[in-house]
Amino acid sequence: MQAAGAVIAIGGAESKLRRRSVLQAFVEECGGQGARIAVIPSASSLGPEVVEVYRAVFTSLGAAEVIELRPRSRAEATAELAAPLADVSGVFMTGGNQLKLSAFIAGTQFGDAIVAAHARGAVVGGTSAGASILAEHMIAFGSGGSTPKQRMSQLAVGLGLVPGAVIDQHFEQRNRYGRLLSLVAQSPSLLGIGIDEDTSAVIRDGVLRVVGKGSVTIVDGRHLVSNAYEAKRTAPLLVSGAVLHVLPAGCAFDLAGRTLAVISTPEKDEEVADLRAAEADLREMAREIAAEGVSPTDYARRLRRSRRA
Amino acid sequence: MQAAGAVIAIGGAESKLRRRSVLQAFVEECGGQGARIAVIPSASSLGPEVVEVYRAVFTSLGAAEVIELRPRSRAEATAELAAPLADVSGVFMTGGNQLKLSAFIAGTQFGDAIVAAHARGAVVGGTSAGASILAEHMIAFGSGGSTPKQRMSQLAVGLGLVPGAVIDQHFEQRNRYGRLLSLVAQSPSLLGIGIDEDTSAVIRDGVLRVVGKGSVTIVDGRHLVSNAYEAKRTAPLLVSGAVLHVLPAGCAFDLAGRTLAVISTPEKDEEVADLRAAEADLREMAREIAAEGVSPTDYARRLRRSRRA
């Protein structure tokens, strides 16, 4: 039996020109030079234009082929349209309106074909709306704000590729703590995942790895206490005891254990450069001492002089 | 020995006209009809105008007297200026620039007099900047955003009336999760307290009670893992395992135990009204049955008829 592919949820507004770390990681997961990627722009109101952008980026990042599949209604989401999914190495859903994705794709033959592609090892990813549809439960829409309130967000049904989770996007840029917390308050069994722009959660074998510029925020509500079952109208919600993880690039998170798996090791370029330089100095010193019989004190003096010059 | 007074931290923009629950709670804590309140507008660039607003509100809420004390420099923050603090029942610091409060008041004779007033039982409160200065550590300034980043916020020294804590304000409205989390990531021993606008944290005997329209967000970092000690420049910070409490009005929190003390009991007006009406009906029915010998079935029929009419 083949292992399932990675699920890659991107928080929207990923860089397409300069430091394209998020889309580069996507193409690499899809197989790099051998990547065959289906772009699904159904969430977007622009179809072909969006596909052309991603075709250009994925191709310049080395992908072998990029095809477009665009069901524009539930009726169009057929097994025939989905046929090419049988031999792509990656599926990418663009941003737009995620209710179009739950309406046109989830639970159709086309949607089933995406799930089947994932099961046989293809990578399935998406950005913004295309990220939210990936999880079992999909945030449909909601209002911004830090504080969770009753009725501030809606839940719909996603593709189920990340079980027991809900994925929100543009997390930092659109101030979405409140709406994610409100969903977890109502369903504490859900793992809330909020992804910043130009950032992705790469999920494989139950481990979530963070790539990109921002962070992935995880809300674990298993032990939380809430009044969501009785809060009226748009009242602020009680959320007590949620465990919070904010994970920048380089961190990894064990989704089953709900614990940090790898701690980020940020670039220590300067420190490393200093150390390398010191090592090089020491080696040169040792060489000179051995070759010329110069004393360490003499050598250090000569080194200082040559540096001043 | 007298018990210390309450500390009341308001998240800014508290209602001054209609539903003034936050300022009303402040005046009540200060003794209601007997309240003598000193307003300190040192953080504000408008002095007398701000005092006049609070004088009008506090007086209309029943306070007996409102005085103004306004040190405008560290040199002015003398014991002489502070003399009236010896017999007020409440101290209120307005909003503005909290670095003016740490610069002009904290650690001066005037600041010591505020601390002494609190110790003998006076209430000490403040809004916005006036809230931040109350805790042991004061958030001086910082940028907005949900995701914690290195160097996004500054810490200065507060009055110390809430030990081991840092208080942020305008929490939901200015998207301040990131800056509060960044401070707790750097100092996990700190209890982070974020207060929404028109909302207050009323702290007395180690218990924080929430009053007002929004919520108080508490970040408990005791068990968190962070990379704050090595994150470079403005990199996003790792914060893993922080425990989060978002508390709407009516909730109470045990600051020492860091646990929810009282769960919010939102208004169940309709439910209660229905129950009361049913009880009244039953009582009337019992009375009529006893007095007139009418059968329960007859009575119920008459009741329905009289309601239709």
UniProtKB/TrEMBL annotation, chains A, B:
Pfam families cross-referenced by the UniProt entry: Peptidase_S51
DNA-binding among keywords: no
Full protein name: Cyanophycinase
Function according to Swiss-Prot or TrEMBL: Exopeptidase that catalyzes the hydrolytic cleavage of multi-L-arginyl-poly-L-aspartic acid (cyanophycin; a water-insoluble reserve polymer) into aspartate-arginine dipeptides.
Family, as annotated: Belongs to the peptidase S51 family.
Keyword line: Hydrolase, Protease, Serine protease
Top EC group: hydrolase
Gene3D superfamilies: 3.40.50.880
InterPro entries named in the record: Class_I_gatase-like, Peptidase_S51, Peptidase_S51_cyanophycinase
EC number: 3.4.15.6
Record's catalysed reaction(s): [L-4-(L-arginin-2-N-yl)aspartate](n) + H2O = [L-4-(L-arginin-2-N-yl)aspartate](n-1) + L-4-(L-arginin-2-N-yl)aspartate
Recorded superkingdom: Bacteria
Organism this protein belongs to: Microlunatus ginsengisoli
Residues of the signal peptide: none
